[in-house]
Amino acid sequence: MSCQYMAAFGSSLLRSSITFGVLSPLKRPNSIPLFQSSFQHPVRQCARRAMSRVSATHDDEAAARAAATEANSGAPTIFDKIISKEIPSTIVYEDEKVLAFRDINPQAPVHVLVIPKFRDGLTELGKAEPRHEDILGHLLHASKIVAEKEGIVDGFRVVINSGATACQSVYHLHLHVLGGRQMKWPPG
Ligand code: AMP
């Protein structure tokens, strides 16, 4: 399977949408993001493939899967340091359960990440269990609050990349809230 798409669903009844898959191929920077390891992460290799529109090889896909397995070890991520304020971020919304801050590599005029403060095993959406229903609903509602605060509630997109095939790069569940420009469909 290529890195272009994993799966997607949306609602034609709503101007906003929820997408599970990857953002634009232009999403990924060539450089390693701040505060992240200089190790050439297989998932990032996956993103590079998307940028160059070259199909993934079986070897690359296996490497990305191995990286995801390691990432799901439960080790702290860069988002834990953002929650603890150890590293700076531009916070746009916060309550007792979630934190929303601007993405360091924005893919739209508004690009905010919404994360649970307590990860509770939610390294990725694919790890969700029934006990997570409350926080998952809370994250979606917080995304709507962010959209309101950012002035894009009339039309915005919420994206969750889940797992190596979707080129997820930070293993702490996060919702991308994107808006401020015309979105395309299907995403890519
Ligand atoms: P994903 O690829 O879906 O796992 O998304 C991870 C997102 O985290 C990317 O869009 C990155 O740009 C973003 N990111 C990584 N490091 C930081 C940081 N220090 N502050 C804000 N956003 C970050």
TrEMBL record:
Q: Catalytic site residues?
A: 174
Q: Superkingdom, according to UniProt?
A: Eukaryota
HIT domain ranges (all copies): 78-188
Lineage start? Eukaryota, Viridiplantae, Streptophyta, Embryophyta, Tracheophyta
Q: What GO annotations for molecular function exist for this entry?
A: adenylylsulfatase activity
Protein name (database record): HIT domain-containing protein
Q: Which SUPFAM superfamilies match?
A: HIT-like
Please give the Pfam families that the UniProt record associates with this protein.
HIT (PF01230)
Source organism (scientific name): Mikania micrantha (bitter vine)
